[in-house]
Amino acid sequence: MVCPLPSISLCMLPSLNFEQRHSFRSSLKPTSETLQRELFHKFNSPFELQQVHTLVIKTGTPLSALPLSRVASICALTPSFPYARRIFQLVDQPEISLWNSCLRDFAESDSPFDAILLFHQLRSHNVCPDSFTCSFVLKACLQLLDLFHGRIIHAFVEKLGLQFNLVLQNVILHLYSSCGQISDAILLFNKMPQRDTVTWNTMITQLGKRGDADSAYEMFLQMPERNVRSWTAMVSGFVQCGKPKEAVDLFTKMEEVGLKPNEVTVVAVLAACADLGALNVGRRIHKYSDESGFQRNIKISNTLIDMYIKCGCLEAARDVLGGMKERTVISWSTMIQGLAIHGKADEALELFSEMTQTGIKPNAVTFIGLLNACSHMGLINEGYAFFASMTRDYGIIPGIEHYGCMVDLLSRAGLLQQAHEFIKQMPIMPNAAIWGALLGGCKVHKNIEMAELAMRHLHELDSLNDGYYVVLANIYSEAKQWDNAARLRKLMRNRGLKKTLGLSSVSIKEVAHEFVAGDDTHPQFQEILKMWNQLQVHMRLKGYIPNTSVVLLDIDEKEKEKVLSRHSEKLALVFGLIRTPPGETIRIFKNLRICEDCHASFKLISEIVDREIVVRDRNRFHCFKDGCCSCRDYW
DNA sequence: GTAGGGTTAG
Predict the structure, then answer these.
(1) Which residues form the DYW domain (predicted)?
(2) A399 to each of A250, A394, A427, A494, how far by Cα in Å?
């Protein structure tokens, strides 16, 4: 027999200490409050539902005291479902709202498919869904990119007469567009009776993700009202579409309009600066970000690290990493990759062990950075060791990129036969990048036979890429096989391929000055030429001999030297020397790889003019100082 | 209840 004491709330007894309270409590009949609290902890399996229910009845506790949403999530996908329903029907709360909160939790959980299962459960037990039900299930479909169920729910929305619910229409639009059904999305967009900013922003975001910057921008201009998210979506879209300049320009316009960029905008525009190598804009945004109180945002810090690295400022990148209170695997991987392209393999490897010591597990991208570091410095054994370790110690299956790094590592080091064997033993089909890496090694190590073999594969895999033909033509002309070189040029012509023009830019007071190879139409060309001739006198005294073998054309030596002296990176450097004060570091950005003659020249010039010259080429950084390059001539 | 962001071989 239960002790017939009146129900007293424990909080009415503040003077009792913990032990007293505890002994008192055990002699009391549970109140609704204590019951509710305890139920929350006890509720673990559906078996206990009946026991709890019995307790509730025995103590006369109102049913609403039960943690109903917890009951719902525990019973949702079990045979106790009907039992839970019977309880819900006794509570003064719409049944569907309980299932909805459960659906929301499932949709946001690690297994969103549970939301879809629950939806089927609800349907088969004739529970009537409402608009919230649909929105949560659609959210689950979106997480899973489950177009099949998405279409079912869409049909259901129409059946329930919810086709005028703007929120639902927006989710459906989002679902179609992110499942790659852009034409369905556009169809829906066009027939929507009303649209809001979310509708437009969704379209802009998804078009940007698909690489269609033009359509996205058209929408951006067309939309009646733009908020910060609209601008952010467009800035981000430009970055994703490989238009970082447009991204920075739009960002500037956004500031002019008086809108305050938020954390997401900052990430997007910093990524644009990284792509552009726009250090000054990047620095300004870093300052803005700090002033806005974004210091603790990990994604911003990670993007800042990447931005500084890609702008050639390793020190600044280190400072950002050093100042981070919390780091993710991305923070470390970004820095490791950064050190790799700056030729600091030892530091990259050190950072890796520091990372694992702090308990952070590397991911597939971390290993790309590590292998890259080995590759840029010729660390063959270390590279093999990392390649083996990634699977053995971390269960990461190497992807095509990892194989690419290994082929690059071996080829660069001149182990061409070994590289070829490695390719033949790959468990996945080698792609153009793999053969391209081998071809690159053949150029450095002047192996015509292997180069031709690689080219046969490249011919099949990526016949429209001019770069490979140029490399092979280069190999031929260096070996003075003019017939073969000419044959290749003819092949390129027949295929409608043109050699990508060399483009270099040098930034002076925030303005990027661009130079094209061979361009003598620049207004300051005469000045540049004069300066180059002066430099050459000093260079020749230091033993400089123009390396005319890099010139593809079969022309006389004097002509070759002329072509050589007008390489875009040389024009940019000389212009930079003229227009900047002595001692200032010169930063050059080139779209292709730096040529061997320019590399040799820059080393000498850095010594002659006593300046640091930082060149970011298509692959990595070269930092010239006191007659040496940070790549130690291994590239 | 609906829209967004960070590292990735050559």
Answers:
(1) 543-635
(2) 36, 14, 10, 35
